[in-house]
Amino acid sequence: MAKYERIADDLRGRIQAGEWLPGERLPTETPDLTTHYKTSLNTVRQALGVLAFEGLVDKVHGRGNFVRKPRKPVTRTNERHQWEKDRAREPEDTRRQTGATEHDTGLTVSDLVFSADFREAEASDDLAGLFEVPVGTKLLERIYRTRYREEDEPFNVARSYLVYDVVKANPDLLDPAQEPWPGGTQNQLFTLGIELDRIEERVTARPPTAEETEELGLKAGVAVMVLRKISYDTTGKAVEISEVTLPGDRTEMVFTTPLNRW
Asked: Rounded to 5 degrees, what angle do the CA atoms 46, 222, 58 make?
């Protein structure tokens, strides 16, 4: 094992033992760590680079190295969809008490900062095929970001697509000022007389783009999960399509499948 790896192991153990708490600064690279480990500055920096890659340490230019504060984890289960459907017809006061993000994180409405951007878009070949509409059909594209009030980065970036001519039957659905909508998309569809029958989700993983790395606050080596969610109504027609980009270092996907008994 190289010397920088041994130093990284020692520092990792000391961090995990609580010698330095989240948000606290580590001893200076020089002279503190170079003297303690009797090694060069380059070796110390290699060791700290390992910990930064693992997400244990943040290097702040001009200030030093800090123990990274754990990000609020997100557990996303497939059971959330039935939970959303069950409350889609509840009174508004009930629907306002909590939403899907609170369900996934255990946070409350007051813990969250929410933003929504709406714009018109044209159906690509891909989306047109799923919606069974001509290419170029006008869609409503909605981009959602929700973050924990104590953090700077959102839990994910979600892009939702609806067929514009369907949505315009309820003008409130075209207004981003109405967001966050109590009861979410399933209640919005309910106002249009649409009931969901099933939701299909497909998850892939890939390296993040530069834009995603910055927006989601990702460290080097952290992948993103890309979730495509297709919501079908009771006639079997796709009525909403979402593409959600989730950071791999804070998101756990849990799928529970009930099995019929013999």
From this structure: 45
